[in-house]
Amino acid sequence: MKKVIELQNIRRNFQVGDEIVHALRGISFTIYEGEFVTIMGTSGSGKSTLLNTLGCLDTPTSGEYFLDGISVRTMSKSARAILRNRKIGFVFQNYNLLPKTTAVENVELPLMYNPDINSAERKKRAIKALQDVGLGNRLEHKSNQMSGGQMQRVAIARALVNNPAVILADEATGNLDSRTSFEILVLFQQLHAEGRTIIFVTHNPDLIQYSSRNIRLRDGKVIEDSINKNIMSAAEALAAMPKPEDDE
Ligand SMILES: Nc1ncnc2c1ncn2[C@@H]1O[C@H](COP(=O)(O)OP(=O)(O)O)[C@@H](O)[C@H]1O
Ligand SMILES: [Mg+2]
Prior knowledge:
The protein is an alpha/beta fold and about 250 residues long. It has one domain (about 35-60, about 75-245): P-loop containing nucleotide triphosphate hydrolases (Rossmann fold, 3-Layer(aba) Sandwich), CATH 3.40.50. It has helices spanning about 45-55, 75-85, 105-110, 120-130, 150-160, 180-195, 235-240, and strands at about 5-15, 20-30, 35-40, 60-65, 70, 90, 165-170, 200, 215-220, 220-225. The strands form two sheets. Strands 6-7-8-3-9-10 form a six-stranded mixed beta sheet. Strands 2-1-4-5 form a four-stranded antiparallel beta sheet, with helices on one face. Helix 4 (about 120-130) crosses helix 5 (about 150-160) and helix 5 (about 150-160) runs parallel beside helix 6. The longest helix is centred in the C-terminal third of the chain and has 16 residues, at about 180-195. The chain is globular, with a radius of gyration of 18 Å. It starts with a strand and ends in a 9-residue tail after the last helix. The model has no long low-confidence stretch (mean pLDDT about 95). Magnesium ion binds near residues 47 and 48.
């Protein structure tokens, strides 16, 4: 199996006044291609710090991080930015879409930094990614003309468009009602079934039944790392939920 992510004894300290906050206290794990990993933990356990590390947005105080076999520590800042753009698709709780910008334009964005892809190819790939997340009929809608669930689909299409090694999601269903959350979860399970590697950070313990593996953090340490042998179907859970009366 191919290693997509390997962390070796990652520590992250923050100096706050005279004190040192130990946000990550020696984290080690390996994530293989095709895994759907939830990272669970209460507030303050280190989830965001860990995700920022995985996303090459933050540099650990010590330890080694290999992304797709490449040591992130040894890279220059600009090389790291390119690596991040090519290898990682981000999905955030608040979608992070450009306002008053169409779905296609938002999804094209990560491809702008790639000189090998011209504008026609960019548009073609963006449309394909939007069709893949079920938004083929909303291509020209602007972000302010869409629902939360639709905006999150656009964000997922944007994360997919570069064909990244891994998708990092930070509380991706955190702003959505439970029905819409499950629709997004169905989409993540579809991506997992297609062989995508997904890391999904959440404080919601209900979600871990739907991933293939769960890593639990407490006080900056891994306190549990378990494979889920009985993955629940988000589609079935969704079908069993009551439909709102105004549903089309
Ligand atoms: N930039 C920072 N400066 C100082 N302390 C920080 C910083 N970021 C996080 N921390 C501290 O590190 C710990 C873990 O925070 P965080 O990773 O945000 O946890 P979570 O996302 O699980 O809520 C907390 O005690 C937090 O206060
Ligand atoms: Mg957080």
